[in-house]
Design a protein that fits this description.
Helices cover 32% and strands 18% of the residues. A six-stranded parallel beta sheet has the order 11-10-9-12-13-14, with helices on both faces. Helix 2 packs across helix 5, helix 6 crosses helix 8 and helix 7 packs parallel to helix 11. The chain is globular and about 60 Å long. The relative contact order is 0.11.
Length: 356
C-alpha cells in the first residue's frame, strides 16, 4: 500500500498497482508507514486487513479472520478489498467494517487502527509454495498454522437472504429439478490456470448426456455464446449478479472448476467439488477442503507456479500445456463418481495408473 499526495495536499492511501500508475503520471507516492500485525494480542485493539486480489484470495482470509476473533473476541477487525467482493464480508459477523480500494480514504483512517495486516503480493512472492496458502497467510499473521483448528483453514461465507432467494428463483426459472445439478466455472481469471474451452464443453455434454443439469458460470465476455444446449445453461454475470451466482453454488450437487473463486466458494458452502490443477499443485490450495476431489494434470513442466495473466510458455494457446494430459472423459467420469458417492482414493489411484 502506498500514500499519494493529492492536489488538495491530503495523503490518500492507494494499492500498489494504482500507485504505479500514478507515478507514471508524475504523482508523488511513498510507502505507507504502519505497525504490522505479527501475532500481537488484539484484546481491545483494532486491526485492518488488506488484500486487493480476487474473490478466491479474500476467501482465504475469512478463515484467518474467524481464528483471530476466536482468540481475541474483543478485537475489532476491518477489511479493505475491491468493491466487487464486498458481498464476501457483508454477512461476516467477524468483520465490523469493509472498505473499498476504489473509495478514496486517508492515512488518518488507516491510523485509526492499531495494526495493519497486508496480504498484497504475498502469494505472488512465493513462486514455489512451500505448503498450503492458508499456512502461508497464517505465517504472515505471526500464527503457527499447527495451532489452528482445521475448520479455520478453509473459507467461510453465507449468502445474504435476498441473494439466496434470487438464486432459488433462478433455478426455478431454468426448470432445474429432480436431476443432479452440476455448476461449472468456465474460466479462471488467469489463462494458464484455465482448462481449455472445447474439452470443457465436452465435459459438460457428457454430464448432460448422463442425466445432469449443467450450469456454466462466469463473466459474460468469458463464457462463449455457443456454450448452451439441452440441459446445459449459460449463466454469465450479465444474467445474474456475482452474489446470486455465488449463492447458487450452495444449492447445486457439485461444482467443477479450475483453481479459482467458485472452487474455493464451494468449500465455504460445503458443496462437493472437482477441482482441476496443473500449473499449481492441489496441495498448495485445497489441502484442507474435505469435500474437494482433485484432478492434477501431468507434464514435465508442471507445476510451474506461473501467476497472473502470463500465457503458458509451452503451449500454442494461453491455457497450460499440461492440460493435454487431463482428458475430458476422466473429468466427467470423476464428476459422476463423486455424485454417486465414489471413492476419492480409488479415483486418485486410477488417474496415477493412467498417467504413469
Amino acid at each position: 500500500m502506498q500514500v499519494a499526495v493529492g492536489n488538495d495536499g491530503k495523503r490518500w492511501v492507494v494499492p500498489d498497482q494504482t500507485a504505479e500508475l500514478l507515478r507514471r503520471r508524475g504523482v508523488q507516492t511513498s510507502p505507507l508507514e504502519y505497525t504490522p500485525y505479527r501475532g500481537q494480542s488484539l484484546d481491545g485493539k483494532r486491526l485492518l486487513v488488506a488484500r486487493y486480489g480476487g474473490g478466491g484470495d479474500l476467501l482465504f482470509i475469512t478463515g484467518l479472520v474467524r481464528e483471530l476473533k476466536r482468540r481475541w473476541p474483543g478485537a475489532r477487525i476491518d477489511v479493505i478489498c475491491d468493491r466487487k467482493w464486498h458481498f464476501i464480508w457483508s454477512t461476516n459477523r467477524d468483520v465490523q467494517r469493509y472498505m473499498a480500494y476504489r473509495r478514496r480514504f486517508t492515512v488518518e483512517e488507516i491510523e485509526e487502527h492499531d495494526y495493519l495486516l497486508i496480504f498484497e503480493g504475498l502469494i505472488e512472492a512465493d513462486p514455489a509454495p512451500r505448503g498450503n496458502v492458508y499456512d502461508l497467510f497464517y505465517e504472515r499473521a505471526g500464527i503457527d498454522p499447527a495451532t489452528v483448528p482445521p475448520e479455520n483453514k478453509r473459507p467461510h461465507w453465507t449468502p445474504a437472504p435476498g441473494d439466496a432467494k434470487k438464486a432459488r428463483r433462478l433455478l426455478r426459472e431454468l426448470g432445474v429439478k429432480d436431476r443432479p445439478t452440476v455448476a461449472v466455472q468456465w474460466r479462471s481469471n488467469s489463462p494458464i490456470r484455465t482448462y481449455p474451452s472445447r474439452p470443457l464443453w465436452q465435459v459438460c455434454r457428457e454430464l448432460a448426456d448422463a442425466g445432469c443439469e449443467v450450469l456454466i458460470l462466469g463473466r459474460d465476455r468469458e463464457v462463449p455464446r455457443w456454450a448452451r444446449g439441452e440441459s446445459i445453461h449459460r449463466l454469465a454475470e450479465n444474467d445474474a449478479r456475482i452474489e446470486v451466482l455465488a449463492a447458487l453454488v450452495g444449492m447445486v450437487d457439485l461444482l467443477v472448476g479450475p483453481d479459482s473463486f467458485f472452487t474455493h466458494l464451494a468449500a465455504a458452502v460445503e458443496t462437493p467439488s472437482v477441482a482441476l490443477y496443473g500449473p499449481f499443485t492441489a496441495e498448495s490450495r485445497v489441502k484442507y477442503y474435505p469435500r474437494c476431489t482433485t484432478l492434477e494434470a501431468k507434464a514435465e513442466c508442471a507445476p510451474c507456479f506461473i501467476h497472473g495473466h502470463q500465457p503458458c510458455p509451452n503451449a500454442a494457446v494461453s491455457s497450460g500445456a499440461c492440460w493435454a494430459s487431463l482428458p475430458p472423459g476422466l473429468i466427467a467420469e470423476t464428476c459422476l463418481e463423486v455424485l454417486n458417492g465414489g471413492s476419492e482414493r480409488e479415483r486418485r489411484e486410477e488417474h496415477a495408473q493412467a498417467t504413469a
